[in-house]
Amino acid sequence: MEVKKNSFKAWFLAARPKTLTGAAVPVMIGLSLAWKDAAQYQGHVFSWVAAVLCLLFAFIMQIDANFINDFVDYAKGTDDRETRLGPERACTQGWVSTDAMKHAIATTTILACLVGLPLVWFGGLEMILIGIICVVFCFLYTTHLSYMGLGDVLVLLCFGIIPVSITYYVQLHTVTPEVLVASLACGIVIDGLLLVNNFRDRDTDKLAGKNTLVVNVGENAAIILYLFVGIVACLMGIVFGIYGSWWAFGLPLIYLVFHVLTFLKMKRIWKGRELNRCLGETARNIFIYGLLVTLGILLS
């Protein structure tokens, strides 16, 4: 692929727009739950300004994480232009200079903080602590946690529990058991993206000393785990039914059809760059899950 260095196209590819589904889905679910429950809390009115700020913060933090991952993996030598199996990366391919990427990381980090700061008005001073945690974890994932096999735990926190719960909290200043279970289910679904990514890179990660969950448990257990996370997340949706949102439990079961088809494709391909197709399908499946849960909650 011909990409001019530091061009708009280079930065667009470096931002990895397909990954933004993982940032959008938790916020969508948190907002739909808040919209449903808003009438139950006297004096609370759903704020569209806060909703937009939550979504923008999630998007910018995701792009920031992508930039950090791109730069750090290149600097550590984890990404090699000749042996890399995953989608091409900006620094490794020379599309973006390392100095430009450093400036971009600083810019997106500051921009995320500026966008998130007004949420203090809606959620209180505790939003500052949440923002700091998000920024710290954004850097720790690539630099340390992914090498320690803790990447999946971080996904549960930063793509499930934190964004769903905090998006809801900003609106209603509380968190319900339904929200907590929904946030955990969301994180589990999105972890499928990390699992297929690490399943593809298991051999190179092992050589690089990157002890991901897939490396630790082995490829056979990992591929079963990929299937398992989708099923468990959907079964956890029974909490929606318990709270009267049966549509939110039933509709996401459609997602399982796509999830199982991707799982079967992974088993057939097993190794190599062709697994990138499964990565793309998993991102699509996650978005389908988010849409179905959101629609189910609103219908209820």
Please summarize what this structure is:
This protein has 300 residues and is mainly alpha-helical.
Protein described:
- There is one protein chain.
- The chain has a single domain, classed as Orthogonal Bundle (Farnesyl Diphosphate Synthase).
- With 300 residues, it is an all-alpha fold.
- It is 76% helix and 0% strand.
- The model has no long low-confidence stretch (mean pLDDT 91).
- The protein starts with 7 loop residues before the first helix and ends with a helix.
- It has 16 helices and no strands.
Order of helices and strands: HHHHHHHHHHHHHHHH
Indicate the structural class: mainly alpha
- How many discrete domains? 1
Q: What would you call the quaternary organization?
A: single chain
- Give me the CATH fold name: Farnesyl Diphosphate Synthase
CATH class value? Mainly Alpha
Beta-strand segment tally: 0
Q: Mind telling me the C-alpha Rg?
A: 19 Å
- Intertermini distance: 47 Å
Question: Helix segment count?
Answer: 16
Biggest sheet overview:
none
Which CATH architecture is right?
Answer: Orthogonal Bundle
> What sort of overall outline do the alpha carbons produce when their principal axes are compared?
globular
SS strand fraction:
under 5%
Low-confidence stretches: none
- What is the average of the pLDDT values? 91
Please estimate the helix content. over 70%
